[in-house]
Structure formats: C-alpha cells, structure tokens
Design goal:
The protein has 230 residues and is an alpha+beta fold. It has seven helices and twelve strands.
Length: 230
C-alpha cells in the first residue's frame, strides 16, 4: 500500500510533502511511504529537520492519504498504537513498552545491544547504563541525538571501557515507540558485511561518520529549498 503526507490549509487546499522535501500543491512528485505507521513515526523528525517549513502549520491539519482509496485520514503521531512501530527489519514490535515514564517530549536516546541486553548512554559520565533511569540522556530533536551517536562511534575513550563491543553498533531509539531511527537502512546497506566485522583493523568508524556527514551535506545541497554554492 502507498501513503502520502498531506497538510490541509484553512481554505481546504491540499499541500503534499514532495520528493524535493517541501510542500507542493502539484499532483505529481509526492513523497510516498509504504505504511501509515511509518508516516506517524517520521513526522516528528520532519518537523525537527525543517522547522521553518512546519513552523506555522498546525498538527491537527495534517493527514495521510491512502493513495489506493483516495481516503484522507487524520495524522496521529502521538497515539498509543504507534508503539507497534516497525523495527529496521520491518517486524512489528507489538509487545514493546517504554522503559521510562516520559512526561516530556524527549523521546530519543542512544542505545547499544550487548550479550546481556540493551544499554543506554549517559553523556555526562560517558558510559552505557544497564539500568534505565533519569540518568539516561534523552533528546527532543532527532538530529541532535543522531549527531551525538555518530560522534560516540569515534570516541576511543568511551570504547576503551568496552573492548568487546562494536563501536559501530550503537543506534538511536525512539523510547516511546521502540523504533530504531538511526542509522538508516540505506546507509547500512552501502557497506559490505565484512566492513563492520573488520572495524578493529581500520579506522572504519571514522570513515562511516565522514561518509554519513557527506551524504547529509549532499542531500541538503541538492534539495530545492537550499541553494548552497558549490
């Protein structure tokens, strides 16, 4: 199935999120998702990444369009059923429950999977914590959490404490939904399977960080809403 993100103005006009990462009223060039759950998950990230484009748009005016049926359904990014979010392998996490009682909008945290379970990162001490409490660092902005996770991957001081852990295996998780939101599947699929297994013989973590930063810069450069000089 195919879905599109739609903003309905007060005058009833439909504005579609486009492949050029902006809103358009044209009937073509719309960005499409394979599930409604995915749109609900990505919506907070879009707002954080493009604050100017979303600043004056009210959340209650956002919808997702079922392309097949042409039916508009109100967007609900904060509904409880979104916790059945998709993992990177596309498997619903129906049994996921948030490990913390979150009363604010700081849903993003950095985590890593060890043989004895999941650990969460504490930035003030530079350590991973097995016990989930208020010492676990959380972010409101997805991009800030991802940038910190990227920096951690090349911090030798941190990984000297965990010599048996893979520095490339940390990730950013949405604590509310259980969805792993960074790194994305496209970036992971770029590297051969042997790349991650040989991280100890080369400075591959640094290379991974630089390639992801380059990928982000290129996307921003070629976006129609940015006109950066070459």
């Amino acid at each position: 199935m195919t879905y599109e993100l739609v903003y309905r103005s007060s005058k009833g006009n439909n504005n579609y999120w486009s492949v050029n990462e902006r809103f358009t009223r044209k009937e073509t060039g719309h960005f499409q998702w394979s599930s409604a759950i995915e749109i609900n998950q990505i919506f907070p990230q879009l707002k954080a990444k493009y604050p100017t484009l979303f600043a004056k748009k009210k959340t209650e005016r956002f919808y997702y369009l079922d392309v097949k049926s042409s039916k508009l359904i109100k967007l609900s990014p904060d509904q409880e059923e979104i916790k059945a979010a998709l993992t990177p392998d596309g498997i619903p996490q129906d049994n996921y429950t948030c490990p913390l009682k979150i009363t604010d909008s700081k849903y993003y945290a950095i985590a890593i999977d060890a043989p004895d379970g999941r650990y969460y990162f504490n930035t003030s001490k530079g350590v991973f914590l097995k016990t989930v409490n208020d010492e676990v660092r959380r972010w409101r902005e997805f991009d800030k959490a991802a940038a910190t996770a990227n920096t951690i991957r090349v911090n030798k001081k941190i990984w000297n404490k965990y010599p048996d852990w893979n520095p490339l295996s940390n990730y950013v998780i949405n604590l509310k939904t259980g969805a792993i939101v960074w790194p994305n599947k496209e970036l992971n699929s770029f590297f051969p399977a042997s790349f991650e297994s040989n991280y100890g013989t080369t400075n591959s973590a640094f290379l991974l960080m630089m390639l992801e930063q380059l990928d982000t810069q290129l996307q921003e450069h070629f976006s129609s809403i940015n006109q950066y000089s070459t």
